[in-house]
Design goal:
With 381 residues, the protein is mainly α. The chain is built from 19 helices and no strands. The chain has helices at residues 2-8, 15-28, 31-43, 49-65, 68-85, 90-100, 111-120, 124-152, 164-173, 175-189, 195-212, 221-251, 254-265, 269-286, 289-306, 311-325, 333-342, 346-369, 372-380.
Length: 381
């Protein structure tokens, strides 16, 4: 019981309910729809345009919420009907929503990255920076697959001409949506406020924009706050219980024993990293990503230190693995969210999902074996 309470009694964890509430306010305030409108004007008139717009919008919205499910739900609701209208199958549209949602937990501010920073006692700001390129690589891979899909299935291209007037109108309407990630991430990287304080800034910004634009009525705020409280309570309960279980594992020296078992297979870092990825992909298929991260943290930190793995790089490998785990059965949260908002049964989403997941696995391999992809921005900032 003491470990459960101490596991959630960390100042940094205050950012989790703040970012959840900020994302909920911005979704209800129509910011996701405005981001989609801007992306549609810029990218909608090319092969695969509507699908590319969906991925670009998810990337931008992920930089506001830090949540995979919120990104899938918010952007999926706005883009799946438009993709179907433009000739994409509802199955592919749902599969794409399931795979672009996890970009939200790599592009900062990311809730799993915050939790890993707390568990591993690493700089959350540095972890945020390290997650940018992997998140963008996943987005790029999904865009390429969307382009290939559109060409292969001869999806018609919008023949309308680009209009600066339309772009200007979309930018004007979506100005505050674009400023949200600039404010939050710029404040963190500029040293104006900490990641925890950034969550509170996001809440204030989302509330002011939503109320002042009349997208949110003051009377709706209690229901939005209550909904975010429920989500936060579920996440923090998982964190607390997982912290207690992790302590039990440490007390019984299980991380050391598991580490010795893994290292007995091979002492080659390439093989060890492959085994870690396989383990995380399997565990991520059956366990909540936050619980898996915390329960396995002491074991993974021990193995990472043994083979000389940079702890920031290790954190990004773990989050990328768990992001992929969100997209496929049997526990894939974003897969079931995409099924719910599209009305397509899960079994019909699987076939178009396969090439999209393979593109994410390719990015995972690059992130794992080329540490500079994650770490080079740390030298810049």
């Amino acid at each position: 019981a003491q470990q459960l309470m101490s596991g959630v009694s960390t100042y940094t964890l205050l950012s989790i309910p703040c970012f959840i509430l900020a994302g909920d306010l911005m979704f209800t305030g129509g910011l996701s729809r405005k981001l989609v409108n801007i992306a549609m004007v810029l990218l909608g008139r090319r092969p695969g345009g509507a699908a590319i717009v969906a991925v670009a919008s998810a990337t931008a919205f992920g930089a506001i919420t830090g949540s995979a499910n919120a990104t899938t739900a918010a952007i999926g609701k706005a883009t799946i009907p438009e993709m179907v209208r433009r000739g994409y199958s509802r199955e592919f549209s749902a599969a794409l929503a399931a795979t672009y949602g996890p970009i939200g937990i790599l592009i900062p501010p990311s809730i799993p990255i915050i939790i890993w920073g707390v568990v591993a006692n690493e700089s959350i700001t540095q972890l945020f920076i390290a997650g940018i390129v992997p998140g963008l690589l996943i987005a790029a891979g999904l865009m390429i697959m969307s382009y290939v899909h559109a060409k292969r299935h001869k999806i018609p291209v919008d023949e309308g001409r680009f209009s600066f007037a339309a772009l200007g109108h979309a930018l004007k309407d979506g100005f505050f949506a674009l400023m949200a990630p600039v404010l939050i991430l710029g404040g963190i990287y500029g040293g104006v406020f900490t990641p925890t304080e950034a969550g509170a800034v996001g809440v204030l910004y989302g509330m002011l924009v939503g109320v002042c634009s009349r997208e949110i009525k003051v009377g709706e705020l209690p229901a939005i706050i209550l909904r975010s409280m429920k989500t936060s309570a579920m996440i923090l309960f998982i964190v607390g219980m997982s912290s207690a279980f992790s302590w039990i594992m440490g007390f019984n020296q299980l991380p050391d024993r598991l580490g010795e078992m893994l290292l007995s297979v091979s002492d080659d870092p390439i093989v060890i990293l492959l085994l870690i990825n396989v383990l995380l992909l399997v565990v991520g298929s059956f366990m909540d990503e936050l619980a898996a991260m915390i329960i396995l943290s002491s074991f993974l930190i021990h193995v990472g230190a043994t083979i000389g793995l940079d702890p920031i790089h290790l954190g990004i490998i773990i989050v990328t693995n768990l992001a992929v785990g969100l997209t496929h059965p049997p526990l894939g949260y974003t897969l079931f969210t995409a099924s719910a908002i599209s009305g397509v049964p899960v079994d019909r989403i699987i076939r178009p999902l396969i090439p999209l997941v393979l593109s994410e696995l390719a990015v995972l391999a690059l992130v794992t074996y080329f540490p500079s992809l994650s770490l080079f921005l740390l030298e810049v900032f």
